[in-house]
Amino acid sequence: MADVREALMSGRNSDGARVNRPLSPHLQVYRLPMTPILSILHRVAGVGLAAGTLLFVWWLAAAADSDGAFALAAGVMNSPIGWLLIAGWTLALWYHFCNGIRHLWWDAGRGFELREAHASGMLAIGAAAVLTALTLIAGVVAR
Hints:
Blueprint: H1 4-9, E1 10-12, E2 18-20, H2 34-65, H3 67-78, H4 80-107, H5 114-142
Antiparallel strand pairs: 1-2
């Protein structure tokens, strides 16, 4: 065999005869389609929601515990890092919600064409961004 590539492509079929098989696409060459990316993001958003819920429960427990504990929790939540965590949690919530509606549409047997799947993915991202912005604006106005 002349080189490593040739050795990697060489194999045997079930009869034992030599065959050349194609290599899988390398990660530097292969571009993941939008639907799997959005599926992964849906799972990441679910994990983010769980983490954000723990933060929310800590805030509620601090409110029930004492004034000092609540002051600490409120200070963390009102810090720039706290606002970033709240914004991320809100984005995860709205994205998970919008993509969940997309999955319900798929459960009805609709939207499986490539063009429709791409459009519904973009709609889920756009709707999540708009709803997140509206929620954060409402939160700032209500303060």
